[in-house]
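Follow-up to my post from last week.
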Amino acid sequence: MRSRGVIKALGYIGAAALGLFAVSSVLLSRHQESHPDSSRGQRAADETILKKLEGIEQRVREIVKTLEQSQQRGAEQRPKEPEPQPQPQPKKVLHKKLFPNSFLFSKWGGDLSEEEQKEAQQLFEQFGYNVFLSDRLPLNRSLPDTRDPKCATKVYPKDLPTISVVLIYLDEALSIIKRAIRSVIGRTPAHLLKEIVLVDDHSTNEDLSGKLDEYIFSIHQEKPDLIKRVRHQERLGLAHARISGWEAAVGDVVAIFDAHIEVHNQWAEPLLARIKADRTVVVSPVFDRVNYDTLDVTAYGAAAHAFDWQLWCMYESFRPEWYKLNDKSEPGKSPSVMGILVADRLFLGEIGVLDKGMQVYGGENVELGIRVWTCGGSIEVVPCSKIAHIERSHKPYARDLSVPLKRNALRVAEVWMDEFKTNVLVSWNLPLENHGIDIGDVTERKKLREKLKCKPFKWYMDNVYPQLDTWEDLVAYGVMQNDLSDKFCIDQGPVPGSVPILYQCHFYGPQICYYRQSGEIYIGGIKSHKYNNNRCLVDPGEGHVPGLHDCKLAKEKGFHMHWNFKQGQAVRNRSTKRCLEIAQGRDSYYQLVIQTCSGQHWRIQHLIKDL
Ligand SMILES: *[C@@H]1O[C@H](CO)[C@@H](O)[C@H](O)[C@H]1NC(C)=O
Ligand SMILES: *[C@@H]1O[C@H](CO)[C@@H](O)[C@H](O)[C@H]1NC(C)=O
Ligand SMILES: [Mn+2]
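User reply:
Got it. Predicted complex:
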């Protein structure tokens, strides 16, 4: 009786843990933008998952222990808690922590009164960063010089192009925008700063009208007409907002930034010098991270800006040539920009600025990257130019950013990716035909591509972004279901772990499978980059438990990892004569097993080539 109760509890919590994993893996992919470099970021993400699961395991162990103890003790009295010892009175008043689980207070705010905590937490939830603290820091606070030491010794020409700085915002905190303006004025040579263009994509907080007007008025006492304003009467989305900032700008060069930034000393000169030397280069500064809770600056090294097949942006190493230079102050070529971009104003216009058909958030930066490279320009990240950028805990555009990103990514694929557009559909687990998502009208963008005589996407893959895996021999993808039970799907199973399972279908990442021409079956995702490893279904050769192992490792160890499969037929390895099947365990639930083929049939959701 007793052990059964415990097992039930375990089973239930195990399922909850799996559910949590499904959700957390989805959430994590959403935050890739924030990671300093892809591999480091991914590792950190994996570690977070591991920690979470370890935490859950620990909880399970504790619960099991408690259950056992309480059952052993039966009606016995619980041992008495030790009497609390009188504590020496601290001199400082200690306030109760009202939000012990809020990320805002994990490192900050220990000395806040309860009233202050409430205010700070409310502002944090509204804006995604510490507005309470921002309101109390000087607008002209100094920032640490995080550049490579060589940068400070560089000398730039005096006669550089002028620059218009466009700050885009949507419901940003007033003090954050003021600090951005203050830093741009204070740290850009006055003869180069043509103007600051504020673009308000229809914010709703009232601070951003009256009080911001007052601040601008005070700046105009000293620098008349330095600040221009563009206000949208309805929300147009990030791409559109950026375009309207470009349209309002008149400087030789336009810099399009988020408004939750502060520029570092000498941020503009290296960018302007690069554009003066070659007007077809679109450049990006390097962002340092401003932590959303403490507003401290964490230095980031320079890295290329890139993306995966879903078009989430991410950091990536530069091409090998950059490392051979052995000079961290030198600009590096980059497949794309992350959103912050600086370009010759007229050149940006000639190649089509940004795609006005993009909605809400995401994808427009990748579209720009591919377009610049394939239509005659290039993109560079310039290490001597640094911007401190707040990584918000959440973004205001949409609760689930994957919805607009998916739609915008399909647009990019349709216009720019030729035969590789399949990969975007595959990565979002959409069918190749009739995916049912309205991507808007793309005829103008297709015409633009023709007019500019842009190179094919294959050229971009070969020459600009060879780290991206072409997925050329992929034949099928999606969830895999067995004829005998269509409520259940193959699932990667507990993580960490190496045993795939059968689990109620939820259609999230952990259940998506990929079948390659080589006979490999991946479970729980496919990596976009050649340097990352996938996890392959393996027949361990003995016993009935299937395995799921890093494919490269499995190959080295000589595991049986090649499967014959046709739609609606068996999944089988001919040489071992065994099949992936399902069988009822002692508890009468179906389990995933490897056994002598009994004629079971599998279906995979989508086919790329006929199977
Ligand atoms: C900020 O401005 C104040 C008042 O103008 C000035 O006294 C102070 O030195 C400035 N601080 C920095 C770091 O520039
Ligand atoms: C079955 O497994 C063996 C050993 O891994 C492998 O050499 C063989 O190619 C597999 N059979 C098929 C049809 O993939
Ligand atoms: Mn941002």
